Model the fold of this input.
Amino acid sequence: MVTVGTLWLALAGNAQDLDESDGKKARENAAAAAEQEITREVVRGYFLKSNIGVTNYLGTAGVPTSGVIALSLGVGSDFIDKERISASWEVDLQQALINGPRSDEISLYPPVIQGDLHVFNLLVTAEVSTYLTRRFGLGLRGGGGLSIIPLLMGAEGYQENLVDGVWGGVPALVHEGPLPIVLVSPTIEYYTKLSHFSVGAEADVSYTIGWDLGVTPTGYLKYTF
Done:
């Protein structure tokens, strides 16, 4: 004969089993939701990117220079987005300040440049990256564009004082208009735990056709929408 006590214990046991089952499901659902939320922290798509570093020309044109600072602002978008690989395009406006020879040394280095240089580069690049972990990637980018190094002094003064004033002086091609530029660069990127933000580094190796070979190591901050 089933007593009231036995029935009560059975009901209580069933209720406890149901509570444990419900609690386990709730924990599993919470863990799955947390994992999905973490995954969403890595965002790819359209982005803005800002770089800071320095540009150094290697002197292949025969003119010694030294870099001061290089800055760039870029826009782009990922067009391949997979767990272990991504690819993107990017358009950058880059500018750099370069120290040239002292005024009393300019005549020693043909071609004759104006001295210090202000460089503007418009670049279009593509990048492919592979991810060693979900947040850390290594990549390679390449592309090209146009480089402009305008005269910072009057054209007449440049011609009369530097070119004509130097025996056998040859005006530098870089001051005559835009020159084509090509580049290749290794990249490192880390997606921070702040959604949409990542940081990274690049080391552009570029050749401005008609001028010089340059290296531009930079660090960057990127915001992906």
In short: The two ends are 70 Å apart (CA to CA). The longest helix spans residues 4-39.
